[in-house]
Design a protein that fits this description.
It is built from eight helices and 19 strands. By secondary structure, the chain is α+β, with helices and mostly antiparallel strands. β11 and β12 form a beta hairpin.
């Protein structure tokens, strides 16, 4: 029985994915949980493992192509099986012998599939306990008809795109061509059937001086110039752009700055790292993570989020740690940071960062944080302001430790200072509450022995 395999949801916010690599070839035997492909999502490159078993008869999406969530990407079946009817159904060319009725639903239902029936799967196949309703999932089987047994009919096609207007339907091949030429396919007017955009339309648009081939760069007017390089955004970069715009547009940010005396904390770090292997040394960031976790406990009203019009007070301290990767930034979450030792925090953050850079984080490891830390001190940055990661209520930006002259006992002396900037969501954290958090943080950083208790 041929089965259409859909692109599953590999991250909580995934809407589409780019197929980076097929791990199997057509004709290979696939078992349940076998690695089928690697897919770049908005979070990371995730493993796409098979929910079913069979022989990979056909790949429907090529490497480097982008597919929408739930889009067919492969066909499973038995060796030598004829999948012509399945391909015809997917391309809208179903056999004329299939029943047609304007009033009838496109997806029929039967109690038992025919032996050669076709099923659509993005989850493990299960035997139905009752007939599948026509209003149920898109995966369904159809009773055999003359000439075609068990042909799957897709949901009704959407209304034809208005001819002469941009943004018509397009194939993966055409979208790939558009990406290569730096063309926004939504700006192209299709000349194909029902306004479909063809490769010729993309070629014509890209060579037309009257129509910009890409959105203008920030701060510029007009199209990208010939010498400019057009770099298609990765799924992760698209997600970062979407979420940061959403954050700045919908979250009322305000910022609190403080200069912390980190001399004692740096001395403590030096003592903790004495005789320790380089790969296991404690970082300044590790100490800040533990200090922030304890400060949230000390000021519980600051450990809050704005969710669906309500203030949600968290009784857990799960810290999101910003990690720079090739395509942008990810924020793996350190669970129960207030209950872990600094050495345990250091080991876990190091392991999460390593897997983040290798794009091996699991979706659940990148969600559920209540507070974020972003540290650019190692890059020589003195101070900066970070953008809140919704629905978290605050994010702390940490600059580098600097040698500065300070006044001690009425005289100038060398000292160590670090600038921190707290970005707050004013819906849940007002100025006084944010200041209380920074006050608690200062007490821990400047008397770091409290961090180790």
């Amino acid at each position: 029985m041929a089965k259409i395999i859909d692109l599953p949801k590999l991250s909580p916010t995934m809407e589409e994915g780019t197929l980076v690599r097929w791990a199997k070839n057509e004709g290979d035997t696939i078992g349940v949980d076998d690695l089928l492909a690697e897919v770049e999502t908005d979070k990371a490159t995730m493993e796409f493992r098979s929910f079913d078993k069979g022989t990979l008869l056909k790949k429907l999406v090529g490497e480097g192509q982008t597919a929408k969530l739930g889009q067919p990407v492969a066909i499973f079946g038995v060796p030598g099986e004829d999948i012509g009817a399945v391909l015809a159904a997917l391309t809208g060319g179903a056999s004329k012998s299939a029943p047609t009725s304007p009033a009838a639903p496109t997806v029929a239902s039967v109690s038992e599939p025919a032996p050669s029936a076709v099923a659509v799967h993005s989850e493990p196949a299960r035997a139905p306990a009752a007939p599948v309703s026509s209003s149920g999932p898109a995966a369904a089987t159809v009773a055999p008809t003359a000439g075609v047994a068990g042909l799957v009919l897709l949901p009704p096609k959407p209304a034809p795109h208005p001819v002469g207007e941009p943004g018509g339907p397009s194939s993966p091949r055409v979208r790939k061509l558009a990406r290569e030429k730096g063309v926004d396919v939504d700006r192209v007017v299709g000349t194909g059937e029902n306004g479909r955009i063809t490769a010729a339309d993309v070629e014509r648009f890209s060579s037309s001086p009257a129509a910009p081939s890409a959105a203008p760069a920030s701060g510029s007017v007009g199209a990208a110039r010939p010498a400019d390089e057009i770099k298609p955004a990765s799924q992760m970069r698209k997600a970062i752009a979407r979420r940061l715009v959403e954050s700045k547009q919908t979250v009322p940010h305000f910022y609190l700055e403080a200069e912390l005396d980190v001399e004692a904390m740096l001395l403590l770090r030096e003592q903790m790292n004495d005789g320790v292997e380089k790969t296991e040394k404690i970082s300044v960031n590790d100490l800040f993570i533990k200090a922030c976790a304890l400060a949230l406990n000390a000021v519980p009203a600051s450990n809050a989020s704005w969710i669906d019009g309500n203030i949600v007070l968290h009784h857990r301290v799960d810290i999101s740690v910003a990690v720079a990767v090739d395509d942008g930034l990810v924020t793996p979450v350190l669970r129960d940071a207030d209950r872990k030792s600094v050495s345990a925090i250091s080991a876990e953050v190091r392991e999460l960062a390593t897997r983040a850079r290798a794009k091996k984080l699991k979706p659940e490891e990148m969600q559920g944080g209540v507070f974020s830390i972003s540290n650019l001190g190692m890059f020589g940055i003195d101070r900066f302001a970070a953008v809140i990661n919704p629905p978290e209520g605050m994010i702390l930006a940490v600059g580098q430790a600097r040698d500065v002259p300070v006044v001690k006992a009425g005289a100038l002396a060398p000292g160590k200072r670090c600038s921190v900037t707290l970005s707050c969501d004013h819906r849940v954290v007002d100025g006084a509450l944010g200041a209380q958090f920074l006050q608690a943080l200062r007490g821990l950083v400047e008397r770091p022995v409290k961090i180790l208790r």
